Amino acid sequence: MKPEPNRYSWSCILLGLLLLTGCAVPQRFWPQKDMVGVDLDAIPGERIVLIVSRDTEYKRLLVAELQKLLASEQIPHHTMGIQQLEEIDTAGYSAVVVINTCLAWGLDHDVRTFLDRQQTTANIILLTTSGEGSWLPDMREHDFDAMSGASVKANVENVAQELMARVQTKLERAASTSKGPLQ
Questions:
Q1: Domain at 125, CATH number
Q2: Is residue 183 in a domain?
Q3: Residue 23 shares a structural domain with residue 35
Q4: Core-most of 11, 60, 131, 144, by most CB within 10 Å?
Q5: Rounded to whole angstroms, what are the CA distances from 99 to 22, 36, 46, 125, 149?
Q6: 97-114 burial string, b = 16+ CB within 10 Å, else e?
């Protein structure tokens, strides 16, 4: 007995939907843990760097290394988890470093929402970790600085130095376009 064409069509559609959304659904219900925030006192009007990340062993090591580099240059910085991005206006920071993971062949939902909400993303540096370390996000109409990498503990120092170089570029750009105190 042949299956009804209508049943077969619906089965194919459901299977297709399951395959397309199956990988993305878990991140909505069970998101990765967030980094615990560190709020260092900064003088209002100073250049401030915001570091935002999920909490994995690699990301903790990377954030700690980046914090060490920022401290050695006496650059004030704040650290927080990605879920707190919904409360952030990037205009208050000279540079914003977002460290996230490629999930279901796309950006973390909270990061995508954050980027879409911004009027300008020129001061944002987005590091996306993925299996092979080669996935870059679709920039759409955004102008953020994107880089990718694999979560390999042996390269934490190199990645932190690359992030620091990009942060310094953003700070220099902010200083050259600022007429008053650095923001």
A1: 3.40.50.360
A2: no
A3: no
A4: 144
A5: 24, 13, 23, 8, 10
A6: bbbbbbbeebbbebbeeb
Q: What's the domain count of the chain?
A: 2
pLDDT at 180: 47
Residues 55-106: tens digit of each pLDDT: 889 999 999 999 999 999 999 998 999 888 888 888 889 999 999 887 666 7
The Cα–Cα gap between 39 and 161 comes to: 22
Three-state SS at 109 = helix
- Please check whether residues 59 and 113 belong to one and the same domain: yes
Helix H segments across 43-155? 57-72, 109-117
Do 49 and 12 contact (CB within 8 A), yes or no?
Answer: no
What pLDDT is stored for residue 10 in this prediction?
A: 77
Chain centroid offset of residue 90 CA: 13
Beta strands 145-149; 124-129: pairing state: parallel
Domain extent, residue 166, equals 31-177
What is the Cβ-side half-sphere exposure of residue 161, based on CA atoms within 13 angstroms?
A: 4
In this structure, are residues 110 and 82 in contact, taking their beta carbons and an 8 Å threshold? yes
